[in-house]
Write a structure and sequence with these properties.
By secondary structure, the chain is an alpha+beta fold. It contains 2 helices and 3 strands. It folds into 2 domains: 42 residues, no CATH class; 49 residues, no CATH class. The chain has a 3-stranded antiparallel β-sheet with strand order 1-2-3, with no helix packed on it.
């Protein structure tokens, strides 16, 4: 069968697809409009989804946004939204570390380091 030839599709009165083969014969195939709608929606989604190499590499959820561009023209790993979120999380983490280091020792819980009193036998 020549791959450039297209199969011609006709519907009969029972709702079956009558597929005309290149040899001249016909085949009745059950037709499911829900399946056809799902298939069409999947094809449309594939058409608007960016390819995987251009999609954000955020790990928790599948992000459909495009990766942000660096100043040198290369791609960041994340989209702009996830980059901003990751940068804010990093700033918050660094701030917590700095505040814990600068905390005065008087605020810490004192521990008793006195030796046990001698016991008499």
């Amino acid at each position: 069968m020549d791959p450039t030839q297209r199969l011609q599709v006709v519907f009969d009165e029972d709702g079956h697809k009558l597929v005309e083969l290149p040899t001249g014969g016909r085949v009745a195939v059950p037709y499911d409009p829900l399946y056809e709608a799902e298939r069409a929606a999947a094809e449309a989604a594939r058409a608007i989804d960016p390819p995987d190499e251009l999609r954000c590499k955020y790990k928790s959820t599948r992000c459909m946004n495009l990766r942000a561009n660096k100043r040198n023209g290369e791609l960041h790993n994340f989209c702009q939204m996830h980059r901003e979120r990751a940068n804010q999380n990093q700033r918050n983490s660094e701030q917590r570390k700095r505040s814990n280091k600068q905390q005065p020792r008087s605020r810490r819980i004192p521990t008793d380091h006195t030796p046990n009193p001698p016991t008499t036998n």
